[in-house]
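#lab-general

N.A. 3:47 PM
ok so I finally got the sequence cleaned up, no stray characters, all 182 residues accounted for. can someone with queue access submit it? mine expired

B.Y. 3:52 PM
send it over

N.A. 3:53 PM
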Amino acid sequence: MKTSRAKITLIALGALGIVAAGCSSPVSGTPQPDKPASSAATPKSGNPFAARNQCALLDQILTGQGFPKATPTVAQPERACASQKPSVGTERGMDVSLFLQEDRLYTDTVPHPETARRGDINGRPSIEEPEPQNSPGQCDITMAVEPHSRASLLVTTSLDTKTACAAAEKYATAVEPLLPKN
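B.Y. 4:20 PM
back already:
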């Protein structure tokens, strides 16, 4: 029994010596906070528009066309901006709004599917909806922004709906390249 106790004590002391030797060498450098092992461990923002400002995008596509600086909308200031070009002489005024909505598919909330038309803007899936609020002179174009978000451009004018849709197509075509790639 004395031999086996001696062996156990000797093995334990040897193990302790190995552990102590492993901890005795200093580490150079400055202490840093722990970092995740991979990028998969870090959750990414689900908002593809996080690096974009809707007012700046709207200002960019409306520059030089008589529109004042875009301002956040009252209803959704964190997601939507609008600019209203006043009527001058015989030229009619026009409102243009841009909505950047994360976690909303471009096919969600189509109030009048019977008049909506599927299409694409520069290859990006879209839905054009004349008179989305039952108001002549309005047209909305909503584009897909993957994985599950959308950008919507609404034009309101005192002219006819056909003119509003032509303007909406023009502005949607201008803003599409500025959106996150699908």
